[in-house]
Amino acid sequence: MSARIIDGKAVAKSVREDVAAGVAALEKDHGFTPGLAVVLVGEDPASQVYVRNKGIATREAGMRSIEHKLPADTSQDEVIALVRRLNGDDEVDGILVQLPLPGHIDANVVINEIDPDKDVDGLTEVNAGRLVLGKDALVPCTPQGSILLIKTVMEDMSGANAVVLGRSILVGKPLASLLLAENCTVTTAHSRTKDLEEVCRGADILCAAVGRPEMVKGDWIKPGAVVIDVGINRVDAPEKGEGKSRLVGDVDYDAASAVAGAITPVPGGVGPMTIACLLKNTLTAAKRRRGL
Ligand SMILES: NC(=O)C1=CN([C@@H]2O[C@H](COP(=O)(O)OP(=O)(O)OC[C@H]3O[C@@H](n4cnc5c(N)ncnc54)[C@H](OP(=O)(O)O)[C@@H]3O)[C@@H](O)[C@H]2O)C=CC1
Ligand SMILES: Nc1nc(=O)c2c([nH]1)NC[C@@H]1CN(c3ccc(C(=O)N[C@@H](CCC(=O)O)C(=O)O)cc3)C=[N+]21
């Protein structure tokens, strides 16, 4: 058997087109253009790439992109002062503080300074609470994108056994909440989980967000399962030439796609959905802030 490949790039494109249409309608009917502010502290090369890609996608959707790049030695108080300024700026509808932050800054403190109604990453305590309680939250982008991808191959998730590998605030925990809201029976596994392979073998939907290259093997997967590979890991690729690298997920893709019913590739799976959902959240935040 060979798994159906879930084309995250194509689904993301359609989400972005919907957002662009929504932005155009806001402009026409209400005369304003949503703005997304991205704050980057330091020179982490991967973060620089993501921030640049977010800026391009934001403008492509017809929104304004406001980029704040601060040196790595910026103090926590200065970052907080910037977030507060953006909270008070009516031109700014969404605020994203790129993670990870340099070691001398407490990410938790900075994130919770963001106005929850502008928290398009869905990482503040208020939005995390709303998500768990089933109230109108701004939902973290990667988990939201993962659910949209599952829906392309599974009409109804009710009663499915879903296993989430990983319990981070950014991915694992909110993804488990969303799967529960879809009426899955949810197991959250992590580094202390016993018999991890056996737990995975019980999954009708297996989501891997551990940050360990190709950790999930083909024989961990239930035949026909839907596999969502959130992991983005850069590994050496000497076969491409000296000093070259490539991206792999948390799942051994070749082995898994021989067993799974459907699977997301890396790249081209969850990653593009993350950016698409960020734009979607920015449009949502812009409308809500104006009572639309
Ligand atoms: N596609 C996208 O858009 C995005 C992709 N990512 C990628 O997703 C992955 C996860 O990211 P993130 O959630 O931020 O990572 P974190 O490092 O914050 O969390 C990793 C989680 O995996 C668990 N874990 C680690 N090792 C093992 C193991 N050997 N067995 C079982 N569980 C383990 C940890 O368990 P414990 O809690 O017990 O330590 C932890 O809960 C990364 O590859 C990241 O690059 C992240 C964000 C967006
Ligand atoms: N506050 C905050 N919010 C985030 O959502 C956030 C963050 N910080 N820090 C880092 C992680 C990682 N992340 C990705 C987004 C897009 C791709 C993506 O588009 N990936 C492409 C490939 C990109 C490439 O080629 O390098 C793909 O998978 O096809 C990947 C990873 C968001 N994150």
UniProtKB/TrEMBL annotation:
Going by the UniProt record, its keywords in alphabetical order are:
Amino-acid biosynthesis, Histidine biosynthesis, Hydrolase, Methionine biosynthesis, Multifunctional enzyme, NADP, One-carbon metabolism, Oxidoreductase, Purine biosynthesis
GO MF term set: methenyltetrahydrofolate cyclohydrolase activity; methylenetetrahydrofolate dehydrogenase (NADP+) activity
Q: Does the keyword Metal-binding apply?
A: no
The protein's matches in InterPro entries, at most eight in alphabetical order, are given as: Aminoacid_DH-like_N_sf, NAD(P)-bd_dom_sf, THF_DH/CycHdrlase, THF_DH/CycHdrlase_cat_dom, THF_DH/CycHdrlase_CS, THF_DH/CycHdrlase_NAD-bd_dom
Q: Which residues form the Tetrahydrofolate dehydrogenase/cyclohydrolase NAD(P)-binding domain?
A: 140-289
Q: In which pathway does it act?
A: One-carbon metabolism; tetrahydrofolate interconversion
The EC number(s) attached to this protein equal 1.5.1.5, 3.5.4.9
Q: Does the keyword NADP apply?
A: yes
List residues binding NADP(+).
G166, R167, S168, I232
Report the residue ranges that make up the Tetrahydrofolate dehydrogenase/cyclohydrolase catalytic domain in this protein. 6-121
Q: Give GO BP annotations, semicolon-separated.
A: L-histidine biosynthetic process; methionine biosynthetic process; purine nucleotide biosynthetic process; tetrahydrofolate interconversion
In the record, the note on similarity to other proteins reads: Belongs to the tetrahydrofolate dehydrogenase/cyclohydrolase family.
The entry describes its oligomerization and partners as: Homodimer.
PANTHER family named in the record: C-1-TETRAHYDROFOLATE SYNTHASE, CYTOPLASMIC, C-1-TETRAHYDROFOLATE SYNTHASE, CYTOPLASMIC-RELATED
Q: Per its record, how is this protein called by name?
A: Bifunctional protein FolD
